[in-house]
Amino acid sequence: MTYSDYRKVFKQLKAKPPKLQKYIKNNAPKPRKYGRFTKKCKRCGRPGGHIGKYNLDLCRTCFREIAISLGFKKYS
Q: Is 14's pLDDT higher than 70?
């Protein structure tokens, strides 16, 4: 189904709230238990490039922006 088809379905089901709730219940994405998308950045929500060491839970770009304020030093 394309995006426009989903919009059509929601437009039709807005008049029927019980059917809309059933549609959302059966078609909602399942919660992730493992894999790349289970851990997301606390700051921006990006799932890729995740740094979990020291319980940082940041993506690499956010880590680069705030690393000095966290007390990390850049060696080079």
A: yes
